Amino acid sequence: MATPKEVKLFGAAISGYCTVVHHALRLKGVVYDYVEVDLKNKSKEFLELNPVHKKVPVLVVDGKPIPESLVILQYVDETWKEEHPLLPQDSYLRSKVLFWADFIYHKMGPLSYAIRTTEGEAQNKAVEEFMGHLKTLEDGINKDIHVHGPFIHGEEPGLLDVILRPFKNGFQHLEQMIAGMKLLDKEHIPLLCSYMDAYAELAVVKDTELMLSQYGHA
Ligand SMILES: N[C@@H](CCC(=O)N[C@@H](CS)C(=O)NCC(=O)O)C(=O)O
């Protein structure tokens, strides 16, 4: 496959789904243009890129649109294969990583939304269920991936490190807003907390936050 010439990311600074794409491109060293989409007033150009879901992120590579963040991450990993692999070479290990990625997206994502958008009893229930999922994820990663390093994927961050990042940001924000709420608890999920802390120190994380801060969000 020829190396792509023009890479453009249509995203929104508030969106964790877009953050993960910024990080993947930057870990790979891909040079790209960024277009901030006004989600309240989506342009005709943007709607033509993602007519099915009408959501960000959409990555456009040499004029071809790729929607859906998890699909984009896999596309990026395959297209810039030589640089910083995000998925393991071994197909069984890769299946495990994709299994837990799917768990994060489809089990934890909706609950994280519920925590942010409910109050009282409903919120407590969502928090409790979410804490259970975090523990399941910690134990599952430990059992299935069991590599040693500061990151989930070992010495270098991979797909799971990337997609967990928006949770850390979101929950730190919630913990500050709601007194007594503790979502990222070192006693409960020591490994995940330490992976997330290591990831937070990366230049790609800080550079992306700096770049997106011009749109009013870190
Ligand atoms: N499954 C999608 C979810 C993307 C998503 O929910 N994007 C939100 C921003 S966080 C969006 O574009 N919302 C605009 C809308 O729904 O109109 C992905 O992983 O890319």
Automatic annotation (TrEMBL):
InterPro entries: Glutathione-S-Trfase_C-like, Glutathione-S-Trfase_C_sf, Glutathione_S-Trfase, Glutathione_S-Trfase_N, GST_C_Tau, Omega/Tau-like, Thioredoxin-like_sf. Keywords: Cytoplasm, Transferase. GO terms for biological process: glutathione metabolic process. Residues 5-84 form the GST N-terminal domain. It comes from the Eukaryota. Coiled coil: none annotated. GO terms for cellular component: cytosol. Its EC number is 2.5.1.18. It is found in: Cytoplasm, Cytosol. The keyword Repeat does not apply. CDD domains: GST_C_Tau. It holds the Pfam family GST_N_3. It catalyses: RX + glutathione = an S-substituted glutathione + a halide anion + H(+). GO terms for molecular function: glutathione transferase activity. Residues 90-218 form the GST C-terminal domain. Belongs to the GST superfamily. Is involved in the conjugation of reduced glutathione to a wide number of exogenous and endogenous hydrophobic electrophiles. This is Glutathione S-transferase. It comes from Carex littledalei.
